[in-house]
Amino acid sequence: MGQNGSMSQGALEFDEQQESADATLTVSQLIDEINGSLADRFGRGVWVSGEIKGFRPAAGKHLYFDLVEERNGQRAVISVAFFMGVQTRLRPKLARANLELADGVKVRIFGTLDMYAPTGRVSFKMNDLDPRFTLGDLAAQREDVIRRLQATGRFAANQETYLAPVPLNVGLVTSIDSAAYNDFVKHLDTAGIGFRVVELDARMQGEECPGMVSAGIRRFGARGDIDVIVVIRGGGSKNDLAWFDNEQIALAIMDSPLPVLTGIGHEIDRHIADDVAYESFKTPTAVADRLIEQVLAFREDAESVWDAITARVASVVDAGSGQLDGIAHRIARATRAVVERSDERLSGSAGRLAPLAASVVNQALTRTATAQQRLVVATRTHVSRATARLDSAENHVRLLDPVHTLARGWSITRNGKGNVVRSVADTSPGDALVTTVADGTIRSTVQGTNP
Prior knowledge:
Layout: H1 9-21, H2 27-42, E1 46-53, E2 63-71, E3 74-82, H3 84-96, E4 106-116, E5 121-129, H4 131-151, E6 169-174, H5 179-190, E7 196-201, H6 209-221, E8 228-232, H7 238-241, H8 247-255, E9 260-263, H9 272-276, E10 279-281, H10 284-352, H11 357-400, H12 402-407, E11 412-414, E12 432-437, E13 440-445
Parallel strand pairs: 3-5, 6-7, 6-8, 8-9, 9-10
Antiparallel strand pairs: 1-2, 1-4, 2-3, 4-5, 11-12, 12-13
């Protein structure tokens, strides 16, 4: 610039030459060039793998989500457009693999790159996907979790817990008001037994699922009024049910002092939660059936024991009555025989001892009276002894009834495996005990022992 503020002739000539030498593209032309370069570089499309984030399903609409890769603390993201027509075309393929797209699912998808002119953003237009990649990733994650859990040495810990013979107090972890919840509760109600169900609402899929389910299991395990913990949900896709391969849920089940029954709602696949649980079932209704059968089996056993006690008492009473009748008959026969022999001796002696008849008769009568008195005394003694044996047998049978033993203040204590505790050597500090008294059961933990 000159001193008067105007541009010099040399500078103007340079700018004009530069503008004529460089081509200038419009924005749309630049975007077309970029898209052309992308098409030249990647041809008809490219396969890309990553984890779905920001997925929001919407029926009958185009879907958009991010495909994310986390590596070495770095995060790479590309936007994906999943158009409605492609959704319709791929729906059967997803159904055959029993998969659903959702946040956290790792996928391998095929598509083309495109810069969208109105926003200036490069997106990946999804045209296909590989279900085997997702299924393989789920299987690999499951095997990795199983290896870590087995390394703890406590994989089957919950299967060694004690299931109460009458598990009426149920801690239920599920999504409240779901079909699984309603099926389970209604099935218990129809049994007419009187189950008490304590519910804890939890998400049964998604990123909140492991934390909520494991917290519910641990909370019930810390209570003293629960007999068994039940975890149920309805059916779903493989990736929905794969949340029950989560290590956090498995550890909560393994650490639980109470037996955990699972009914994840699947017909074929098993999950890690099933493997570490006390027992697993295909449906929530099947879990309810297991609890009902447990109570009915106990009731049947109790009735059988009572019938056996009643039969034993009747048998002892009948035997005592038979013995008493036999003794009475033998005494009667002996009395008649003695009298008859005495009469015969008296008749034979009468002719030979006429002079002494009166004396002999008097002596015979005296001996007869004495014999009769002894027989009466003997009869009473036999009857008293037989009655005493009968009363003793009846009392002994009555004492066999455990209800009377418990009512006198006695109790029966079992350890976590259901074995009766007969010595301090049968327990260790920290052991869970179940004590049966006359009107119920008491749960306790061993603080220490004093030999």
